[in-house]
Amino acid sequence: MLFKQQALLRQKLFVLGSLAIGSVLYLVARVGTLDRLQPICPIENRLTQPEPAQIPLRTLQFKRGLLHELRKGNATKEQIHLHNLVQQLPRAIIIGVRKGGTRALLEMLNLHPAVVKASQEIHFFDNDQNYARGTDWYRGKMPFSFPHQITIEKSPAYFITEEVPERIFKMNSSIKLLIIVREPTTRAVSDYTQVLEGKERKNKTYHKFEKLAIDTNTCEVNTKYKAVRTSIYTKHLERWLKYFPVEQFHIVDGDRLITDPLPELQLVERFLNLPSRISQYNLYFNATRGFYCLRFNIIFNKCLAGSKGRIHPEVDPSVVTKLQKFFHPFNQKFSQITGRTFNWP
Q1: What's the Enzyme Commission number for this chain (predicted)?
Q2: Residue 102: which region, alpha, beta or left (left: phi > 0; alpha: psi -120 to 50)?
Q3: C-alpha distances in angstroms, 44 versus 48, 49, 51, 52?
Q4: Residue 99 among the catalytic residues
Q5: What is the DSSP string of 289-337?
Q6: Closest to 308 (Cα-Cα) out of 283, 290, 282, 328
C-alpha cells in the first residue's frame, strides 16, 4: 500500500515538474519574441533607430566585381549589354590642386556606390595632343558604369593650365568642379618634395627649397617658381570664373581631409546631389601610415599608396614665415570668393 502511494506521489511530482518546466520554456520563448519585436513596434523607437552605417554590401560587391572585370578587359559585349553598362563623360572633375590631396579625395569618393572613378589621370584638357583626339577618345578612357552612376576623373594640372576652363566649358557648361586645397606653404613644400624624390631616384642633384622659393637677387618670394605659383589659388580660380559661376565649384579642405575626412566627404556628397552613403564605417585610421584608410566592406580594405605622406625636408623658418605672409592676402581673397574659410596663418 505504501509502495503504491509513493509511486503515485512520484507520478504527480513528475507531471507538475513537467508543467513547470514547460511554463518556464514558454515564458522564455515569449519574452525572447517580445524582445525581438520591441524595437520594431513602438513609433518612438522606430524614429530613434539609426540607419545602418555600412554601404550595402551587395551593391558594392556587384559593382566592384563586374566593373573590375571590365577594367581588365575580361567582360564580353554580351555582359556589357546585359547589364546596361556605358562609358560616360564625367559629370564632375577634380581639377586640382597638385599635392592638395586629389588622389585621396578621388579614392574616398569612390566609396560611394553611385560614384565610379577613372583610375588614371587622363590629361585630356591640358594636353594638346590628347585634346586633338576628340571627345570620343576621352569617353573611351572612362570606366564602364551603370547609367545612374556619376563618373569622376581627376587631373590636377587642369587647375593651372590656361586653356582648360574654356575646353571643359565647351564639353559641358554645367559640369561640377572640385578643387582641393591645402595651406599654400605646406602645399609648395610638398610639391618640392615630390620633385626632389624623383631627382634622387635618378641620382640627380637638386636645389634646396629655400633657393627656389626665394629670389636671391631681391630676397623676395620667387613667383616664377611653379610650386609657389600653383599655391596662389585665387589667381587660377579667377581664370575659371570667366567661364563658370562660383556655384559650380566646391572647395575641399585638404588639411581637414587628412585629419577628419568624413565631414568633408559629406559636403561633397551634398554638392554632387548624392544620397549620403559614406559613413565612419568606411574610414579607419592607420596609425602606422598616419592616414585614414578605406573600408569598402567586411572583406575589402584599401590604403593609399606609400608615396602619400612623404616626409618633408626641414625649411628655414624665416622662409616659411615670408611665404605665409606672401600668400596671406591671396588666401583672404580666395575665401571671399568661395565662401570657404581655413585655419591657415
Answers
A1: 2.8.2.-
A2: alpha
A3: 6, 9, 15, 18
A4: yes
A5: TTEEEEE-SSS-EE---TTTTPPPPP--HHHHHHHHHHHHHHHHHHHHH
A6: 290
C-alpha cell at 285: 585610421
- Residue 289 assigned to a binding site: no
Q: Does 82 reside within a domain?
A: yes
Q: What is the pLDDT of residue 305?
A: 75
Cβ pair 342, 183 in contact under 8 A = yes
pLDDT at 51 over 50: no
On whether residue 321 sits in a domain, the answer given is: no
| 72 labelled ligand-binding | no
> 293-302: per-residue pLDDT in tens?
999 988 888 8
User: At 249, which CATH number?
Assistant: 3.40.50.300
- Look at residue 214 and tell me if it is in a domain: no
> Is residue 101 part of an annotated ligand binding site?
yes
Binding residue per annotation — 202?
no
251-292 residue pLDDT tens = 999 999 999 999 999 999 999 999 999 999 999 998 887 889
How does pLDDT run across 4-29, given as a tens digit for each residue?
444 554 555 454 555 454 444 444 33
| 305-318 average pLDDT score | 82
**pLDDT at residue 81 in the model:** 62
Number of domains within the chain: 1
> φ, ψ for residue 237 (rounded to 5)?
-60, -35
Please say whether the beta carbons of 112 and 278 come within 8 A: yes
Which is catalytic among the residues 63, 72, 99, 170?
A: 99
Q: Is residue 260 assigned to a domain? A: yes
